[in-house]
Amino acid sequence: MSELDIQTPTTFDPFADATADDSGAGAKEYVHVRVQQRNGRKSLTTVQGLRKEYSYNKILKDLKKDFCCNGTVVQDPELGKVIQLQGDQRKNVSAFLVQAGIVKKENIKIHGF
User: Which of 10, 28, 47, 86 is the most buried (most CB within 10 A)?
Assistant: First the structure.
């Protein structure tokens, strides 16, 4: 018989690449901007996924002032802090976040209708 190459099985971790990518500074963390329909013509815009180091209340204050709408910061048990604004402000919020340098344009996901 010919010589056989014997290979010993090694452990393979299929999630090794995913955990290595998350640990770096270049991890993709998206900011989700959604619109929710309330009753009739009323709607609600929510912003989630901002970094924890940002002051949500200061961002909310600037958003309310720029867009002439009311809003609040809600603590959600699953999603963390979420900014809620009255009306459909998706395009305005995404433009504001990019212009202020809080998020890059490619890291914003706009959902709804």
Answer: 47
